[in-house]
Design brief:
Largest sheet: 5 strands, mixed
Number of strands: 10
Order of helices and strands: HEEEEEEEEEE
Number of helices: 1
CATH class: Mainly Beta
Shape: globular
Strand content: over 45%
Keywords: Signal
Radius of gyration: 14 Å
CATH topology: Jelly Rolls
CATH architecture: Sandwich
Number of domains: 1
Amino acid sequence: MKKFLVCFCVICMIFSMGTVAFAFSGEIIVESESNDSISEANNVQIMSSKSYHVVGVVSKDDKEDWFKVNPIKTGEGFFNLDEGAGIDCSIYLYDENGRLIASGRRDIDHIYISSNSVYYVKVKYDSGASKNEPYKLQITVI
């Protein structure tokens, strides 16, 4: 049911933005459950300098989403969170051993990313009344 709601919200988001939704250079990835821990993280393969947009849902009932980032390019990393209406989230970046590298309210910018490493990103629900409101996490390595 949650996967259906996420897909439905993504489709509504795209159509509500009109042609602007197709103006970015990147790939859209929709989270799949269960990805509520580092061991269950969804895989995100960073293939180039284009942006990757991960769409998911966190709420009072589903507080965390985890993503395993596998960059094939070394460079400067940018992790930007666009939260759903009425919800507050934070993002956390971990190394391959589960050690916290950086965290932020909406952005983690200018982080050195190595193609020889694996990274984990956690999107964590902080507060808010909205339920099943999608977020968009943009991941870019330049």
